[in-house]
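User: quick one, sequence for these tokens?
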């Protein structure tokens, strides 16, 4: 996994001009197929901006394919750019540039926008020529394509411009991760159908943010040829500015998670191998070497966070002493479920303290046990204690992971105040807090005589009571086992939104149970703990007739009686906050390589205007400016210019764009041969439109719409994308320094 500092170094627009990273040694034959050897399936991986060959995402792609595809199926995995194909070598250039802040009269170089575009074209040409040449030699070969970030854009360009239908039919599946040219029409607008769980694009896979509409470099429209929409899968994780799931330039954490164990690349490869198996089976070929068994993780894809909430009043000494003997079990548990543990200690009103966090969530079990060993009992003397206050302290105070399944294990020999005497917390408030955190299921580990008293707390938070019986350590082990083995409840979106009277379609069909089956599906549509649907199905429709702000909750129970739940926010008839206002108008004029942009705006952004060329940011100007001078503009093709407002919170607003038609005889730009012209060495004539999917391929397709328009956010496709915007706004020198340190 790359560190944030390595990510910064992968290539951003900085305060100084940054040289593109070397892609390392070229191995002309190590990854590219032997020209005379045929394979059952060839998988092509396309890396992201500034990445070197053999990046982490490629390793996950390659390892998953090799694990699932065995003899008699013969596999060859290719990294685009690992060699040269008919003179094409994909460089995966980092996005670079200069002039982060300019003043009136200063000029911005637009060359970097073309450098990036040339990189995409080079990759698309290389891949399409490679596929064409391989099919000439091995017409029965199947292809699997995978691309990350800029690489996902490359794959889109292959499909749109360069492969005809017969060649596309050899591709059984292509997967796009963090695509900066993403297009999901169901996410467009103030109240889009995606937020009601409706009208999902056929290429949509895991895209939990319902407002995701267009990538950071603007949408490619059409996104795919209509006949090939079903053979493509698109993944855009939460907190990924590159593919547009976040509008905040510094929100890039999700962009780095596609290659995680059992993350999006794992899921994509599994689907690809399943499709390959179906394709080979249709041709009556041996598929015994293909493994299509899903690997279901205990704890879920994002792991499990557990907070221990321990009563340290006077009577708890024997229980705490026994709890300290569970080190081996806890270490195994953390390792098995990608787990983290935290410790909260509590007493009661009037004691030395009421509740405090002794250790935050961490996979360091030694630190947890050091904190547990430091507990000394005191106070109390009466029952009940300040448990609700302690749960509130823990739920609000620890660093929960987004998407992780969550639980709290309570160890006590006393009841609890309701309302709490410390802060007035009630059971209903704690239940609501639990649900708002995704939720946190509470497992009280208590003496047998308290089991009934704690049932309401456990059931309200979809946990379970675990009686201590004769041995506290065994009871804690039982609680951990239940949490580890329980099913995993998942909803398709991380939030839903509608207007009163509109029906929302909730989908929990991705939920699963490891080693068991889900027996019941219960739905609580308003998060009040009362389940309106008992024993329903994995999907449910509900119409909210009045404005509502709360959560929906799905509870599942498996055949072993273990329960789990998922909850996400629901907003009905509520207003969404608006981002910075776009420019009102934008025009571009100029001759040769110099262009002047002029725009009007009724509102100025609080930080800057971002200037982009062909979707790639090349500079920024102060909020009060309304003109910008650009140089190094390639006028051999239609050029798109954009201005985008950016706030001091680094929220990137909607872009206003305009186009300049090409000038004849543009200087300094040499023509590039099309892939179809070099695909067949024996060909002596240029391809016809029918041979190239209906259009003559060119390095860059001209936009179909020329008039000034407002399109969704444009940004930088780097790793992470948002760091490009950060560099534009004043930290370029740091990026240069970090790049030099990168190994």
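Assistant:
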């Amino acid at each position: 996994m790359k560190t944030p500092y390595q990510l910064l170094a992968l290539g951003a627009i900085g305060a100084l001009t940054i040289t593109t990273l070397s892609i390392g040694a070229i191995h002309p034959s190590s990854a590219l197929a032997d020209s005379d050897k045929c394979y059952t399936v060839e998988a092509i991986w396309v890396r992201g901006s500034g990445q070197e060959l053999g990046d982490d995402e490629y390793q996950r792609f390659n390892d998953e394919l090799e694990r699932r595809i065995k003899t008699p199926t013969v596999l060859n995995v290719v990294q685009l750019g690992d060699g040269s194909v008919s003179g094409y070598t994909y460089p995966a250039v980092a996005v670079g540039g200069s002039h982060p802040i300019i003043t009136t009269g200063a000029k911005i170089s637009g060359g970097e926008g073309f450098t990036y575009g040339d990189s995409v074209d080079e990759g698309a040409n290389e891949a399409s020529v490679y596929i064409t040449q391989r099919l000439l030699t091995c017409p029965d070969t199947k292809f699997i394509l995978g691309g990350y970030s800029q690489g996902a854009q490359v794959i889109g360009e292959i499909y749109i411009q360069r492969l005809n239908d017969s060649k596309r039919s050899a591709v059984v599946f292509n997967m796009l991760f963090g695509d900066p040219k993403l297009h999901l029409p169901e996410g467009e607008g103030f109240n889009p159908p995606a937020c009601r769980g409706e009208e999902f694009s056929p290429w949509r896979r895991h895209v939990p943010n319902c407002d995701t509409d267009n990538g950071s470099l603007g949408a490619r429209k059409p996104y795919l040829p209509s006949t090939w929409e079903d053979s493509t899968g698109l993944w855009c994780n939460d907190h990924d500015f590159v593919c547009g799931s976040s509008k905040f330039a510094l929100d890039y954490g999700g962009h780095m998670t596609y290659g995680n164990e059992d993350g999006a690349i794992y899921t994509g490869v599994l689907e690809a191998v399943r499709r390959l198996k179906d394709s080979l089976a249709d041709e009556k070929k041996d598929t015994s070497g293909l493994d299509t068994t899903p690997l279901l993780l205990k704890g879920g894809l994002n792991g499990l966070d557990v907070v221990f909430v321990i009563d340290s009043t006077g009577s708890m000494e024997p229980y705490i002493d026994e709890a300290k003997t569970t080190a081996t079990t806890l270490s195994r548990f953390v390792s098995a479920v990608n787990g983290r543990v935290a410790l909260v200690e509590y007493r009661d009103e009037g004691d030395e303290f009421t509740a405090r966090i002794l250790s935050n969530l961490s996979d360091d079990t030694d630190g947890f046990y050091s904190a547990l060993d430091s507990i000394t009992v005191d106070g109390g003397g009466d029952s009940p204690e300040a448990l609700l206050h302690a749960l509130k302290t823990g739920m609000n105070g620890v660093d929960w992971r987004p998407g992780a399944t969550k639980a709290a294990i309570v160890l006590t020999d006393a009841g609890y105040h309701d309302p709490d005497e410390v802060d007035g917390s009630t059971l209903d408030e704690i239940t609501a807090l639990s649900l708002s955190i995704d939720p946190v299921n509470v497992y009280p580990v208590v003496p047998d005589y308290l089991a009934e008293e704690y049932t309401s707390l456990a059931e309200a938070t979809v946990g379970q009571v675990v009686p201590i019986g004769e041995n506290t350590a065994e009871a804690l082990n039982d609680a951990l086992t239940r949490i580890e083995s329980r099913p995993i409840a998942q909803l398709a979106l991380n939030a839903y939104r509608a207007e009163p009277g509109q029906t929302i379609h909730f989908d929990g069909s991705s939920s699963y149970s490891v080693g068991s089956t889900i027996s019941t599906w219960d739905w609580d549509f308003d998060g009040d703990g009362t389940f309106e649907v008992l024993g329903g199905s994995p999907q449910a429709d509900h119409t909210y007739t009045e404005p509502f702000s709360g959560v929906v909750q799905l509870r599942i129970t498996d055949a072993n009686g273990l329960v789990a739940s998922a909850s996400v926010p629901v907003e009905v008839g509520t207003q969404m906050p608006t981002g910075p206002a776009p420019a009102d108008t934008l025009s571009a004029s100029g001759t040769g390589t110099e262009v002047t942009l002029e725009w009007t705006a009724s509102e100025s952004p609080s930080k800057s205007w971002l200037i982009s060329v062909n979707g790639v940011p090349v500079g920024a100007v102060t909020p009060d400016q309304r003109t910008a001078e650009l140089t190094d503009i390639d006028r051999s093709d239609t050029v798109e210019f954009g201005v985008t407002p950016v706030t001091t919170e680094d929220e990137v607003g909607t872009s206003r764009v305009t186009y300049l038609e090409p000038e004849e005889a543009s200087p300094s730009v040499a023509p590039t041969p099309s892939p179809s012209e070099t695909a067949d060495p024996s060909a002596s004539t240029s391809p016809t439109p029918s041979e190239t999917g209906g259009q003559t391929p060119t390095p860059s397709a001209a936009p179909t719409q020329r008039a000034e328009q407002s399109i969704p956010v444009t940004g930088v496709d780097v790793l992470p994308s948002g760091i490009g915007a950060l560099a534009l706004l004043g930290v370029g020198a740091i990026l240069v320094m970090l790049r030099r340190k990168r190994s």
